[in-house]
Amino acid sequence: MQLVENAENVYWDLVQARDNLRVQERALELANEALKRAQRELELGAMSPLDIYQPQQNYATAEISVSQARYFLKQREDALRKQIGADLDPVFRLVPIALTETTDVPIDTGAIDVEAAVQNALLNRPDLKAANQALDVDDLQIKSARNSLLPDLQLLGLYSAQGRGGNFFQRQDERHSRKSGRCVQPDVRVRFSDLPIRTAVAAPHPKSRRRGRYGGRARDKEA
Q: Model pTM?
């Protein structure tokens, strides 16, 4: 959702830069017309020579504004190409971007259902969807912290076998366990011939419940 929101913002920034360039170019045309009229008045003697500097300054300022608007438009185009991945291919890197959306107000807007428009906006807003996903992540973190406060049960097995002749296989000290932090483990082992089984129950330390961690020292006893 964040990527969609960023893409929309970059697109409309480019639309704004395009319209701003049009406004600055129109302002340059008006400044040029005013300068020509002032020069004509100066030639006819209807204007003081000192008054010609103001129209010239206005025209120069308009030229600077047009240059800045073109540079800003180029930046926004590069940002949009980067957002859609068009800058990765040299073939499409210099292809002109045709903007299909405008900021003009529609002539016939018709009646607007306010409630339906609000519901549609709430359902399609990317920032709200991103906020809901962040809440889901927070819920998972809360569940994980709550599970870390629960007791931990471990079952460990040790098996060995050997014979007087033939092939000999010996497997020992193979353990499969799961621990979480430091814990107190009262162990109980029951031995059936060569098959000892040990169970370990780990409970959170009372003083560490507030921190969500296990406390104490591990302690093993052989039955």
A: 0.48
Q: What are the boundaries of each domain within the chain?
A: 2-93, 147-208
Q: pLDDT-derived band of residue 60, with 50, 70 and 90 as boundaries?
A: very high
Please give the distance of CA 23 from its chain centroid, rounded to a whole number.
34
Work out the mean pLDDT of the chain and round it to a whole number: 76
Give per-residue pLDDT as tens, 82-139: 888 887 878 777 788 888 877 777 777 677 788 888 888 888 887 888 888 999 999 9
Higher-scoring residue by pLDDT: 159, 37: 37
Six token digits for residue 36: 């020509």
DSSP, collapsed to helix, strand or coil, labels residue 182 as coil
Beta bridge partners of 198: 156, 189
Residues in the chain, overall count: 223
Compute the Cα dihedral for 6, 126, 4, 14 and give only its sign: negative
C-alpha span between 50 and 52 (Å, rounded): 6
Which residues are CB-neighbours of 182 under 8 A, at least 6 positions away? Answer: 205, 213, 214, 215, 216, 217, 218
Buried b (16+ CB within 10 A) or exposed e, 5-33: eeeeebbebbbebbbbbeebeebbeebee
Let me know if 86 is exposed, middle or buried by CB neighbors in 10 A (0-12, 13-18, 19+): middle
